[in-house]
Automatic annotation (TrEMBL):
The keyword Oxidoreductase applies. This is Gfo/Idh/MocA family oxidoreductase. It comes from Thermatribacter velox. The lineage of its organism: Bacteria, Pseudomonadati, Atribacterota, Atribacteria, Atribacterales. Keywords: Oxidoreductase. Pfam families: GFO_IDH_MocA, GFO_IDH_MocA_C3. Residues 6-122 form the Gfo/Idh/MocA-like oxidoreductase N-terminal domain. The keyword tRNA-binding does not apply. Residues 133-281 form the GFO/IDH/MocA-like oxidoreductase domain.
Length: 386
């Protein structure tokens, strides 16, 4: 590969700059343009991130013939529209999750991307922690045995107080599901990837603990000490879940349960799973990402540290540093984007090799799962995933 890709980013909130940094660290892409809600915001971010071109209208970015791949890092309700227009403009697309607000939109994007023969990816980056990848290969290579049960959680506390507010709380911007769609989708994608199995039936219990939240009337940063006075906010009814527990049945007979909670004090961003197999158990915590616990019945348990010399050959490809040199969240996006960009740049892959990274089809899968979970929570019954 003798050249780098020209990349553009739409959306400059938290995750947009994370995409920019990760893309640059691949050494396979040059970030040439950024777009946001208006010229002022776009210019400010472009200057902060040393990006040469900026647009106050994302359509102008899509008209830029120099841009080959577009990263969509906007609120959820824009993902479908922007992905579709990017594909129609002939751009490869990396989209934040969820891919779309409903199954029909997601199916349309899958069909369009395949028709256009354009590379497409959804940012399920947690697959790219080295020990999550190693767990996948341990299961695939029979080291875990037949999987009996899987349980775990994704816990956060960023919405702990009723004064915590974000666009993700508004269904018209984020969708009818919040905690499950926002973080549960990551857990479900990771578990299906690691286990090689599919969820076929769900039973969900939702709870909204803060039924009224206080929405600031202007940016919180403008308040002295960030303290809200009664006249500084309005009460907003909340109709999406703070919490969910979901019972799971898997195609190959395993049972499981997932809990997601965005008001879990002290848990900043903790994805946890434990897989119980007939040969051993595996357990992993994203807040301690460089350790994989391996449970045994007849001998001492193990803690496998992230060290390329101890990992499978397949996993070593996403490890950048030697043992004892920890890798974390920013590295997952770098490793994923490396796979995406190499796929675009490698002409052989365009001749039919299946991509190794999560694609729009994986994004569609999570939309389908989330819709089944939402239906179950509303109906109070088991719902088949179809």
């Amino acid at each position: 590969m003798s050249r780098t890709l020209k990349m553009g980013v739409i959306g400059t909130g938290f995750i947009g700059p994370a995409h920019v940094e990760a893309a640059r660290r691949t050494a396979l892409a040059e970030v040439v343009a950024v777009a946001d809600v208006n010229d002022e915001v776009a210019q400010k971010k472009a200057q902060e991130l040393a990006i040469p071109k900026w647009y106050g209208d994302y359509r102008e970015l899509l008209k830029n013939d120099e841009v080959e791949v577009v990263h969509i890092c906007t609120p959820n309700f824009l993902h479908y529209k922007m992905s579709k227009e990017a594909l129609l403009a002939g751009k490869h697309v990396v989209c934040e999750k969820p891919l779309a607000m409903n199954r029909r939109e997601a199916e349309e994007l899958v069909e369009l991307a395949e028709k256009k023969n354009l590379v497409n990816a959804v940012h399920f980056n947690i697959r790219y922690y080295p020990l999550a990848r190693e767990a996948h290969f341990m299961v695939k290579n029979g080291k875990v045995g037949k999987i009996f049960a899987i349980h775990g959680s994704y816990l956060q506390d960023w919405l702990f107080y009723d004064t915590d507010y974000n666009w993700r709380l508004e269904p018209e911007l984020s969708g009818d599901s919040r905690a499950v769609a926002d973080i549960g989708s990551h857990w479900l994608d990771l578990i299906e990837y690691i286990s090689g199995d599919r969820v076929v039936e769900v039973f969900a219990d939702f709870a909204t603990f803060h039924k009224i939240r206080k929405k600031p009337l202007k940016p919180v940063e403008t308040y002295a000490g960030k303290i809200l006075r009664p006249e500084d906010y309005q009460d907003i009814p909340i109709n999406t879940e703070d919490y969910a527990s979901v019972l799971l049945h898997f195609k190959n007979g395993a049972h499981g349960v997932m809990t997601v909670n965005q008001v879990a004090a002290g848990r900043k961003n903790r994805l946890f799973f434990e897989i119980h197999g007939s040969e051993c158990a595996l357990s992993w915590d994203s807040e301690r990402p460089n350790e994989l616990w391996i449970g045994r019945r007849d001998k001492a348990n193990e803690v496998l540290m992230k060290d390329p010399s101890l990992l499978s050959e397949e996993t070593r490809g996403i490890v950048s540093f030697p043992g004892g040199h920890n890798e974390g969240f920013p590295d997952t996006s770098k490793q994923m984007f490396k796979e995406v960009y190499r796929f675009i740049l490698d002409a052989e892959n365009k001749r039919g090799t299946a991509p190794s990274f999560p694609t729009f089809r994986d994004g569609l899968r999570e939309v389908i799962l989330c819709e089944a979970i939402l239906e179950s929570a509303r109906s109070g019954r088991w719902v088949k995933v179809e």
